[in-house]
Amino acid sequence: MSRDMLLWDETLFRDPQVLEIDYVPEDLLHRENQMQSLVYCIKPALGGMRPVNCLLTGPPGTGKTSAVLKIFEEVEKRSDDVVVLKINCQIDSTRFAVASRIYRKLFNVEPPSSGVAFRKLFEKIVQRLIEKDKVMVVCLDDINYLFHEGHADEVMYSILRAHELFLGAKIGVIAVVSDTGKLYRFDPKVSSVFLPEEIEFLRYNYHEIKDIIASRVRLAFYPDVFSKDAQELVVDYVDSIGDLRIGIDLLKRSALNAEKRASRTVEIEDVEKAYESSRLLNLKRVIMPLSADEKKLLAIIAGMGRSKAGDIYEQFHEVTGLGYTRFYEIVNKLAELQHLDATFSGEGMRGRTRLIGLSYPPEDVLKCLKG
Ligand SMILES: Nc1ncnc2c1ncn2[C@@H]1O[C@H](COP(=O)(O)OP(=O)(O)OP(=O)(O)O)[C@@H](O)[C@H]1O
Ligand SMILES: [Mg+2]
Asked: Domains along the chain?
């Protein structure tokens, strides 16, 4: 073993915590306007009024979730009368799961068995808020995941019309949409009551990315550990993708690579090596929470390439034993989430054939499925 090999307790990280995914940055740089708009929406709650509903939009890794978490931290510091709750709709992806999450927050216990209807559960929630004289702000983060089968509409409708159910109920919503190009539309009966303050999170420009990365490097590493060249390469990569989450993951993985080769500095080669894994971060993030059957379908299509629905179904049925109805439900959900592209071809004299393919390179999907 070389004498230069890092000792086990030696490390390049001064504070590894600041590179973890759940770290909420002390300063959300270059998001002053968005933070101000959020304050404007939430402030009424501190005075016992209903908050202004808002809609946060923007591409992945542009600080939407972080902004909400920062505002919520402030609210919790200042008031006991406002209940704030961020719900990750990727995990709680049905109306019942969302209502259960709110119920747990307000009652500190599990909701009554899942036999209870969503509406009943929601009534109990609103009743509780009134009894305790609390205002509630619910953030439906990544609400895209609620759109299939009308869950988003029902959740939104219930929250927005809570005051009609029980006079005086004060509950507001922050809906967060990670826009990937697709326009999500609420049912007209929701849109007629949801007139949100829209807060846009645009992609960061090169200079903003440089600032944010530099600030995170200062917090995470001992001085001069992360070489200037390596840092510049991280900024270039982030600038080409537009997603800061990938940048922060790159910082962590490159430093681990440097440690592995017992170097006391992080160099370009460490970043290059890290990029292959970091670049798949977002794809992993969207694929991981899918159900086992949904993942099996992705794997099958990755193996077959773009194919006819009937052919894909045959394999899917063989692997899972599931029938046609379930197959189509899954296809529709995955197409809705834009993981699949399912279009009809004009091929053949007798009707059209549905062709199904992946929205991402199959080899990337297979890598992510492997974990
Ligand atoms: N302005 C900023 N200053 C410091 N760190 C930031 C900033 N914006 C984003 N980050 C960091 O980038 C990462 C991604 O941010 P965040 O999770 O808030 O993005 P998002 O817009 O919610 O993305 P998604 O749509 O994929 O959920 C986090 O680790 C966060 O700390
Ligand atoms: Mg987010």
From this structure: 32-200 (3.40.50.300), 204-279 (1.10.8.60), 286-370 (1.10.10.10)
